[in-house]
Amino acid sequence: MDLVPGVLRGETVPIARLLSCAEAADDASRPALARIFEHTGKAHVVGITGVPGSGKSTLTAVLAEEFANSGRKVGIIAVDPSSPFSGGSILGDRIRMADIAMNPNVFIRSMATRGAMGGLSRGCLDAVDILDAAGFDIILIETVGVGQDEIEIVQAAHTVIVASAPGLGDEIQAIKAGILEIADIHIVTKCDRSDSNRTILELKGMLKMGDLTKFVEGWEPKVIGTSSLRREGFEELAATIDRHRSYLETSGEIVKRRRKISETRMLKIAESLVRKRFYEERLGSISELCGQMERKKIAPDAAARQLLARINGE
Amino acid sequence: MKNAAAPIRVMMTKLGLDGHDRGVKIVARVLRDAGIDVIYAGLHRSPEEVVTAAIQEDVDVLGVSLLSGAHMPLFGRVLDLLKERNALHITVVGGGLMPDEDVAKLKEMGVADIMRQDSTPEQIVATIRRVVAERSDA
Ligand SMILES: Nc1nc2c(ncn2[C@@H]2O[C@H](COP(=O)(O)OP(=O)(O)OP(=O)(O)O)[C@@H](O)[C@H]2O)c(=O)[nH]1
Ligand SMILES: [Mg+2]
């Protein structure tokens, strides 16, 4: 069945079904996804990351409601890690989003990392396309922030939000490599707690330190305190996201971000295609070249180049 | 359109107001360890919430756990809503404690299978795989 027309009309079942095709990343769905791609470019994509338990899912839900109440359609992609052992996963972000699950302007989809380095699978980026083409104005991507993931989200989102909970490892978590550099907006979550003011001050202090400040002309990373529990700070947060969006557009920064996203997507897919070809060659060229290496007939570097040449030759 | 390499997607939830979610969580881990993606949708959901979530998540199997005897109307409502919303591609599996005649009735209504309280992890995984395979064959 051709799902594309239904997706473009914004119908739930076709959207959900095409998302599964994107997640499966099978070649059969490539033509449909290519048609979807032609209709993308309107949505504003917001990445939300932060350490486990920092309150990302809860705040994503309240933020989505804030946008939805102003008449905008919000798509949410909640990413959780796959088990490295079984490949399966438990996707639990949705539990925290129960309050908005029935809102007709909100669509929530859970996705596993599927072993993708840095947390964002190819399917996740295709999923953003589908929601964009389906007419969602804002797409919120929640990713778990451990190690590489925070960096990855930059290459998928227009606005990057880093969520930190008060006291959660104190200053250390804010200093976590790269975290200060990537955020357009910092959120200190759970501001109903008494230690939140200190965390806000610490974060602001660190952003002022010259060598840590992300220098982007015209946009200074903002620090916003929110409480999902009391639903406080979300008007400011939504307004700040909108302001960041208009900043990107008026400054021309959006062009750079779009270019970065295009580049990353293409390179990632190329990488996975090469990896797939390698896998197919494990009994052919790879095994033969290994044999030659073991007999010292060929050095590793030359073997690698030959392998690439053979794969390209086909 | 689902290809063989994509993991099976199962949504686990609990209808009605009773009980805790320990059992559901244990089953979720069993399925995860068998390479299945489990979307955990939480406790105390209404049939409307459960069906909306299952459709958005496009799960292969909707696993609904119930402890009390008041399950018939709730299950019926879930099945009706799936039909109403054009989502009969989603297979419903029940779980919990119930008498044999209820199991028979539920199957008649369209529930693919019922897992008893005492199902082993192997049985649970096998049931999920079987109902998904049966649906693909159809
Ligand atoms: N006091 C308080 N607790 C909160 C708030 N927001 C979230 N929490 C609690 O923080 C815990 C984690 O919240 P989540 O939203 O699941 O956090 P997360 O970052 O999405 O977690 P992972 O997806 O597991 O990484 C839960 O127990 C929430 O109830 C808040 O505003 N105030
Ligand atoms: Mg979460």
UniProtKB/TrEMBL annotation, chain A:
InterPro entries tied to this protein: AAA+_ATPase, GTPase/Isobutyryl-CoA_mutase, GTPase_ArgK
Pfam entry (one): MeaB
Keyword rRNA-binding annotated: no
Domain of life assignment: Bacteria
Keywords associated with the record: Chaperone, GTP-binding, Hydrolase, Nucleotide-binding
CDD domains found in the cross-reference section: MMAA-like (cd03114)
Annotated AAA+ ATPase domain residues: 42-192
Protein name: Methylmalonyl Co-A mutase-associated GTPase MeaB
Provenance organism: Paragemmobacter amnigenus
Recorded name of the encoding gene: meaB
Automatic annotation (TrEMBL), chain B:
Highest taxon above the source species: Bacteria
Keywords annotated in UniProt: Cobalamin, Cobalt, Isomerase, Metal-binding
UniProt keyword annotation of ATP-binding present: no
Gene3D superfamilies, A to Z: Cobalamin-binding domain (3.40.50.280)
Cofactor annotation: adenosylcob(III)alamin
InterPro entries: Acid_CoA_mut_C, Cobalamin-bd, Cobalamin-bd_sf
Domain B12-binding: residue ranges: 7-135
PANTHER family tied to this protein: METHYLMALONYL-COA MUTASE, LARGE SUBUNIT, METHYLMALONYL-COA MUTASE, MITOCHONDRIAL-RELATED
Protein name, UniProt field: Cobalamin B12-binding domain-containing protein
Originating species: Paragemmobacter amnigenus
Phylogenetic classification of the source organism: Bacteria, Pseudomonadati, Pseudomonadota, Alphaproteobacteria, Rhodobacterales
